[in-house]
Amino acid sequence: MAEEADLLSIGKHCNLASCKRLDFLPFQCSHCKDVFCLEHRSPEEHQCSHFSLTDVRVPVCPICNQIINKSKDEDINRQVERHILSGCKSLVIGKPKKSNKCSLKSCRQHGLMPFVCQECNKNPCIRHRHTEDHLCAALPVISCA
């Protein structure tokens, strides 16, 4: 009897009134924060009152194929029209800036992760992360005399 009580305390019951299924791997709705079983985990399945469908379309110019900045208040077609009338110059979302550029002047790599040399505090890419590879200032100078 005690073992049976322990098993019931592991899972949680689905919050949908018509279900109430005991689920050992329950899902929490990110909108209403209630717990649901696998079958009712999506906001549509449990008719979540906190979930609202939003327009997730991204306006793209049919002429220049650039992504156009989206406003909540204005219609997408109007925004595309304003963009086209400006000569495809306004409302354009700029390209994201690349980060973690290699500090070696001859290299054009941009890394996903930053590397910082402990000796010279430069930011090399993964290929030039070793002191010998990025001509670190801390390396001893060997003379040929």
TrEMBL record:
Q: Domain of life, per the record?
A: Eukaryota
Instruction: Extract one GO molecular function annotation from the record.
Output: zinc ion binding
According to the entry, every stretch annotated as the AN1-type domain falls at 8-56, 96-144
Decide whether keyword Zinc is in the record: yes
Mind telling me which Pfam families this protein's record contains? zf-AN1 (PF01428), zf-C2H2_ZFAND2 (PF25403)
Annotated keywords = Metal-binding, Repeat, Zinc, Zinc-finger
What do the Gene Ontology cellular component annotations say?
Answer: cytoplasm
PANTHER family to which the protein is assigned, alphabetical: AN1-TYPE ZINC FINGER PROTEIN 1 (PTHR14677:SF37), ARSENITE INDUCUBLE RNA ASSOCIATED PROTEIN AIP-1-RELATED (PTHR14677)
Q: What is this protein called?
A: AN1-type domain-containing protein
Q: Upper taxonomic classification of the species? A: Eukaryota, Metazoa, Cnidaria, Anthozoa, Hexacorallia
